[in-house]
Amino acid sequence: MKVAYFGYNALSSCLDIFERHNHEITCIFTGESSPHTDQIIAFAERTSCQISFDKPNQAQMEVLVRDGVECFFAAEYPWRIPIPTSLPFAINVHPTLLPYGKGPTPLPSLILKESQYSGVTLHKMTSEFDDGDILLQEAIALDSNESFDSLSAKLTVKTPLLLNKLLSSFQSYYQSSTPQSGGSYWSKLSREDQTVHWSSSTSTLSKQFRAFASLGVYSEIDGQPCLITAAEWELHSHTVQPGTILSADNIALVIATNDGLVRIARKHLFSITP
Q1: Residues 6+ apart with CB under 8 A from 48
Q2: CA–CA separation, 122 vs 128, rounded Å?
Q3: Do 125 and 132 form a contact (C-beta atoms < 8 A)?
Q4: Is the pTM value of this prediction over 0.85?
Q5: Is the per-residue pLDDT at 274 higher than 80?
Q6: What is the pLDDT of residues 139-187, one digit of tens each?
Q7: What DSSP designation does 267 have?
Q8: CB distance 12 to 30 below 8 Å
């Protein structure tokens, strides 16, 4: 079948799975050229398929269906996709065990909530985010030190395997899908959720560092707003005011927390405009 793909690099290996099952990717919607889209763009160039950097609109989607596209497939795509009524198949990838964990920022939320499991759910795409019938899903256990980056890596491995299973018996899975009922919705995390305060416990700070990892957390060091994309931490008894810079050189700096220390390599520390 002809497929329109919506996504970025993170799960771009799904494109290879569609090719392996002899489906044709005719159009890709992604973001502007960046390190997050270069693999997607390279695939489009290699296969000479159409690529768009615009947000999808109803008229575009109707044209795709009229031109023979039978399936929309979205993988970590942030924009709402209008679904024509005449489209036979529409599938979305969601990184929780739906119906639990609906919402736009589930990965950091999973870690902040200290969940035991994440997962991959392939479900029918509807006009409502994360709300369609479930086609296939599989759990992923979260380690005690799980981070956004480590969980993203697990999803990168698990998702194409689950898609391969779906495509191996596509009609059967699609026709026997399971409606969602109940569950939970997790609102988009705020700037405050992503901000670390040095007066917090080291346990709280470590959870925030892990939840956002390379996405970065916001903070203030010596009066300067900054973004921190990685850190190390440990409990350590002291009488220093939280937020105090204990040591600093060209490689790293160490900051006092309420009950410990945080070390930040300079390469993971970025000044930002207030």
Answers
A1: none
A2: 15
A3: yes
A4: yes
A5: no
A6: 999 999 999 999 999 999 999 999 999 999 999 999 999 999 999 999 9
A7: G
A8: no
Torsion angle defined by CA atoms of residues 85, 99, 157 and 111, in that order, rounded to the nearest 10 degrees: 140
For residues 245 and 266, what is the distance between their CA atoms, to the nearest angstrom?
13
Q: How confident is the model at residue 20 (pLDDT cuts 50, 70, 90)?
A: very high
User: What spatial distance separates the first Cα and last Cα of the chain, rounded to whole Å?
Assistant: 50
Q: Cβ distance 103 to 44 under 8 Å? A: no
Q: What distance lies between CA 249 and its chain's CA centroid?
A: 34
Q: What is the pLDDT of residue 141?
A: 95
Q: What share of the chain is helix, strand, coil (3-state, %, to 5)?
A: 30, 30, 40
Q: At 95, list the tokens.
A: 């990184």
Say which residues have a Cβ less than 8 Å from residue 206's Cβ, sequence separation at least 6.
Answer: 233
Q: Which of 92, 73, 82, 81 is nearest to 5 (CA)?
A: 73
| Calpha distance 182→237 (Å, rounded) | 45
pLDDT at 39: 94
Nearest residue to 111 (alpha-carbon basis) of 148, 77, 158, 67 = 148
- Write the CB contacts of 130 (distance below 8 Å, at least 6 apart in sequence): 92, 94, 98, 102, 103, 123
Phi, psi torsion values for 151, nearest 5 degrees:
-70, -40
User: What structural domains and CATH numbers belong to the chain?
Assistant: 2-175 (3.40.50.12230), 202-271 (3.10.25.10)
pLDDT given at position 52? 95
